[in-house]
Amino acid sequence: MIFLQTYFNFLKHDKTGEALSELADNISTNHTFFYRESSHFDYFKDIALPNIIKKKQLELNKDIRIWCAGCSSGEEAYMIVMLMMEVLGLDYKNYTAGLLATDISSRALKIAINGEYNEDRLGKLPKNYINKYFNKVDNDFYVIDSIKKEITYRRFNLIKESFDFKKKFDIIFCRNVMIYFDAPTRNKLIENFYKSLNNEGYLFIGHSETIERNSSNFNFILPAIYQK
Q1: Please, are residues 66 and 156 in contact by the beta-carbon 8 Å criterion?
Q2: Distance CA 152, CA 19 (A)
Q3: 8, 99, 165, 221: least buried by Cβ within 10 Å?
């Protein structure tokens, strides 16, 4: 117990954040792959993103803001940008439609920024996506630069009293992250997500995670999909 208390105090007072990042590397699995929990991506492509685009058109607003919180090794973030490009097509260039991807793990972020994956990590990604958005070198697949440049990667700790983003988001993905948190921490995070979303914005969480309907202002849409 003395050791645990000493270690806790060390984490608490480490201003660099490196100790917490190292802890995250050791206790989190960072297990993911492209098109994981594919029903989310189908809903994003077919319903959520088109609804946001229609709303932006009515507002004469070309700024689409999406946050991938807990992006791990980058598969989810790249998947979102690919789908944005598929939905918007040639009109993508007329939007400010990039993506913020954050994680507490420096190790995971390095993998994400590099954008190199073996075939196993491609999961159930359709062949046409692989041919269109990857370059194959030997047995590895590299995300093409036109996708990579659309993502801003940052180290970010979700356990905060409040978030200080200058603008709100239209869609937030935070999947399979809250399983590591206790109930009060989850509730605070959900509250911060709600405050960080524009009206009618969407929140995607993991299928093993839930938001208690009586403890949040979010509207339930489908399992693990909510709307402000």
Answers
A1: no
A2: 23
A3: 8
Please check whether residue 15 lies inside any domain of the structure: yes
- Angle in degrees, 0-180, between the axes of helices 18-27 and 106-114, rounded to the nearest 10: 80
pTM: 0.86
Strand partners for 174: 205
Taking the C-alpha atoms of residue 97 and residue 80, their distance in angstroms, rounded to an integer, is: 11
Is 212 exposed, middle or buried, given 0-12, 13-18 or 19+ CB atoms closer than 10 A?
exposed
pLDDT digits (tens, 9 = 90+) for 145-191: 999 999 999 999 998 888 989 999 999 999 989 988 888 999 999 99
Q: Check which CATH number belongs to the domain holding 112 and give it.
A: 3.40.50.150
Residue whose token pair is 């809903």:
43
Number of separate domains in the chain = 1
Give CA–CA dist 207/223, Å, rounded.
7
Mean pLDDT of 13-34: 55
Instruction: Confirm if 169 and 65 have CB atoms less than 8 A apart.
Output: yes
Which residue segment(s) compose the domain that 63 sits in?
A: 2-116+145-227
